[in-house]
Fold these 4 entries.
Entry 1:
Amino acid sequence: MSALVVGLASPDHTSQKVWGLVGAAGYACAALVAARSSTPWARTPAVVAVTGAAAVPLLYLSVIGRAQMEVGVVERAAELLFSTGTPYNPAPHAVRDFNPYLPGMALFGIPHLLFGDTPFASARVWFLVGFLAAVAGAVRVLTRGGALATGPSGTAHGATRGATAGLTGALWLIACPVVALPLSIGGVDPPVIGLLCLALAFTQRGHAGRAGLVVGVAAILKWTAWPAIPVIVAVLALRGGRRAAFRCAAASTSLAGLTITPAMLVDISAFYQNVVLYPLGLGPTASSAQSPLLGYLIVLLLPHGKAVTTALIALSAVGVGASLLLRPPRSTVAAADRLALGLLLAIALSPATRIGYAVYPIVLIAWPRFTARLSADRPATPHPAGEPPYHRRTVASRLCTATPATAGLLSPPRSPAGRDARRRPHREHHETGARHSVGADDSRRAG
């Protein structure tokens, strides 16, 4: 239904309309396949949905040369980067002249710079490649090592099941309308959200340095990735200690600083106009991102609406930051929820925003919960070397070992042979007593 609504509500000759009409047919076919399947969330309907709602619209739009405006912005940013040393236009006037993204986003436009107007050199294709690579990396991290890789029984069969479940989950993620739409029309958000999923996967596995590098890569693409840095640092500090948190923070901020600083040094004014004023709706040119959310309505109805929205965004950032200090998240699911909350507040309160930005909170809420079902999201607790195996199976036996007051109250489980050996003397004693009793009765009768 969502794809059909987008197709009917979008203006003619737009990529959104094409995606909506084609995607609605793809989702309808997937629904028919799912209705005939006895397994919920099976792989076959996911493949049909991805094919009909993402692959077919992407190929069709690539052939006819129709894409979202962001594709041209990124491709021009790559040209400016190689010609002037900065991906930002120093004197932007029209909406197409602005580049509201951070310098790393221009890398997706390099293939177009090298190979020209060929379908596979389009920045849209490389947005897709970046997203798929990040999600595939997240699945690999979660299916390599730990419970997810070996399964509950620690067997290779468990590893195969974990990889299969991870692949199916990735397919359903791609089939989600808020993901399939930007992948098809050339949105810049999928590679960012894919990198955030990969960073959360490394966080779940306890790889602080790798999580920091990945979230740092996301942070050089778009501002929306920056709130993930303190959230991931907070959960690593709680689960891995200060050193793990420091490794993550140092890796992410160093990478972001080394990438963003040169663009600022070349032309600080161009950077400020494109990356700060224009996205916040504070410049002379109105942003094309104007969805009727709370921030947009405040600017529209109040005399000092822009100042009010800026203050509200700052207050929400302070509130989320304070929650990280007072009640840090204890798992990657909780961390993703906290990040989704912060981004949701920023999206709702920003004067220049799009409803399509909902891809961030939706994916951040859904994907970590799916991966948590595949792998226990808790730090591993090693057992003492001398601890008997039966102590590892029951809580009561562990309590008896841990507390002197209760030590010895619960005896360890014995094998059937041991129980028979313990009971045999009692049975023999009763049998001997019974024979003596019978003999005594016979003697009395004889007397």
Entry 2:
Amino acid sequence: MANEKSNKCLFDLTEHEILSQIYATHVYDKEKLDVLSLFTMAKNTLNRATSAVDKALSMGTSAPTDEKILDASFSPPLCTLKLISYEMQCCKSNTQCEENDPMIHIQNKALSILKMLSGYSWDAKAVLTLASFALDYGESCVLAQSQSEDDLAKSVRTLKKAPVLLNATQLQKHKQDFVDLNKVIKETLEVIQCIFDLVKQSNYETNDVPELETVLMGHIEGDKKQELNIFDDKLKAIKTKLNKQIEVYKGHKEKTEAYSKLVKVIQTSTEITVLLKELINPRSNIPPLTDGSTNKPVDIDVLMEKNVLLLISDLNISDEDIALLKIIYNELRKEERHKIVWIPFLEKRTDSQENEYKSLQSKIVECQIPWYIHNSTMAHCKLSEESCRFIREQWHYKDKPSIVVLNSQAQVKCQNAIHMIKAYGFRAYPFTSAVEENLLREEGWIVFTTNHITQMACGIKEKKHILLFGGDEKGIQKFDKKAKTLVTVSTDKLIKEKDISIQLVPIGKDNFEHFWSGVESLFISQAQRRTRIDNEGSILRKEIQKLLSFKNESTTWAVLSTGPSVVMVNGINTVKVSIEKKETSQGQDCCHMEIPFIPGITPEPMTCSQCKAIMETNIKFNCCHKALKDAAANKRP
């Protein structure tokens, strides 16, 4: 198969076949070379040589060339260059196939040179070959320009086949060849320069080295016709491809720099107005905010020396959330130290969003909540890419309403207070992480995650025994029947003697999303404060961890509590045993825990809640086809 490929012309091979042959010659990058210095030397030489040829062809003066200063300490690898030169200039064909098709001869020469340079990096291979060609071509041009009466120069010119450059008749006969050769040389220099530019932007390793190597095999041999225009076209295509890639990396670099600048400004800001302006309106003169109660634009200075509740969401803010914010605002306005700012988080705009946006604005105006909105129109409210990235990576926004609490000195006091506010209302004021910690200590995390369930609130208040349970639909129904029998007509002696009354609360479809959202939010807030080492905090984290391990499992799980105090979290069989105060053996099913991904934060090792071993870490990617659902929604009349 290899022989079959070597007998095919370069231009009959697919790109995959070319690359397969090229990669087979590469060992690893063991040879060291100052590639940039050698390229500078070769580029200077070839620029002078092509300029001299252009002058001879036009019978005019050569244009001045821009030259880079060479490092004086650089010593070119002359022996390697001579070996490459010999390989390029040796014209003897090794096979009948090569004699019949010069292109196959050139192709095999290229492969031979690549094998010789197998220990060099890809860019070094290209530059070494280019430099070897520059050495020969430059020498020929120097000899061609030497005075004709110099006998030594005449002899060397004859050996180097340089006389063709002096003979006007021969020069005109081969004029197009020289024009094409100069084009190829100039394009090659530009392509290699593109490669170096690309390396600056990334760790890009070009796959186009085979074409570069082959192009440099085009050597003028006396009166022999050379078809160089095909190489010129190929190089132009490569250059276009590389330039596009350079633009991509330049764009990526610009985005990275913009993001780094945003992070620095936000992390070092000491004024809330500076932080918000950089986040929502860094490059616009349009007033960044709109007063939600009047729908009139206002300047960001209205937030000077204010504490800000930064509501971040898409256009799906529920009436419940709006009503909750109204209650909170009515309490906050007594002090006039807090303001609410809504940032619509819209990474992509759709046709239906304009109407949704206007409808939501109307609701806000009707509720008479004087919060501030960024901005009054869809055209101006879209955040920059770096701001969207910051909100997702630094504040862990997950496409659900989130409230970031900022003080007047631009310090983040809580990355997401929405669950705290829903669970504790204004008792959580001023909505900081420290307040959340105190409330969790005093009232327990079960209040935090089940505030939306009315029967839970009553049971917690009356300090009843509560069995909160969930799982798949069949598991819930099956356990519900057994549990009702257990707590109503149980013949269990201990339960009867203790007069234990247990309230059953299933987590079904209606409250699944809300419940697990609260659990995940609590887990994230605990993960961000992983430095806690007190026993109480450790117990809370283990309980949340264990509960999360049941989220996407078919196993029916349960939380047993007395009022707000959690007794245990486990699989349903273990909880049932706990109720009956009997021991039983536990199953050996694997314990899984799926936690939300937090960009920039590596999860600490987790201990299994059942066997106490360190849990294995895996990565899971999930897609619920939100983009397809949005597209389908936009098509509806």
Entry 3:
Amino acid sequence: MKKLLIYGILLVVFFVNMGAGCGSQTNDPQPDNFPGIVGKWKLTKTGYYFTKSDGTKVNDTFDTEPRGINIVYEFFSDGRLVVTDLQKNTTAEIRWTLKVNKSDANGILEGQLIQIGSEQKKLAESIGQAGDLTFQISTASNFIALTVDVTKVSAYKEMTLMQNFKKI
């Protein structure tokens, strides 16, 4: 049952991103000037890190392609994010902004990727965030790692959704 809940949460995050409409065009976000994130990125791995009530830490992640998950994010410098599910042949556009806290020549070491839209706000609220949906982000030249705390909607002591993307 817990595994079903876990995969349900994962699917909600993907489908909310797929079905979301654009944010308000009057308040277009201006991401931090970090051109390394602009472009197309394919989801390659996803899943959860969680801590059971007895303190046992579990890494329940998997490669997406063998499971038929074929998601591509395309980041534009003007704050648009186009999310495409190649398996279902669907596309949605939302807004994004980026706050870089710490970086080096190889990428972002610490930052926040904020997805903006009405559905993102609802999802953020459901997992205990105020405002828009905020992921922690780190990057390398051809790699993006996103994480978000989803403990509030889990049965575990702690639970984090992770998503890894590679540049295409």
Entry 4:
Amino acid sequence: MVRSSSLAVAAAVVLVQHASAHTNMAFPKPEWPAGFYNGNNPYARMDSTKLPGTDGIPGYQGVKKMAAAIAASSEKTLRGLMYKYATGVQGTLECGKTLMTGPKHPVPAEIDFPWGHPGPCEAWCDDTKIFANEDCQGNNVGKIKVDKSKCANAKRLQAMYAGVHVENYELYSNCVPLGGSGSGGSSGGGSTTPASATKPAVTKAPAAKPKPAAAAPAPTKKKCKRRVR
């Protein structure tokens, strides 16, 4: 009974953790307005029926439809498409409800943004695209590895995606300010290979000199006794 209760509690904790980062950036952790509690809501919508280059693609093929729309757009990016076709924007067009006034972060080694729905995603350092995929959930993208060389001197890290599970697409975009000290980090989880430790030098003892072989004993001379007649 106790074991069953423990398993139930553990499962509930996992569900709560997953729900808390269902469709928002979990790492680096963005700053939200005071009192704002639901970062899982889309910050804007996109009418899939008004996208360019999608004639003849049925609505239920959202991933294919978005890929065609991005290819037909002038910017050829998800971000450009979102900026142009987003409606009902809450917060800013670039960052949604996340704030750029929070603490500055070092450029991270990876971005953890649980992809709650099928659809394309992108990550940017300022105006440099550092990652893109047509279907981050369906293609099991997981965490995005960051090429730090593309983020040198950048002031903003931005991650976004479009959920195409409904006809009126859900848009998500989170930002964090960059410029903090430190080497950046990862969100944890998964196995890492530890760096090999430097082995201390071992001084070998000098080899022992072989002992000289023992000299053979000298033969004993017998004295001949004179026989008496």
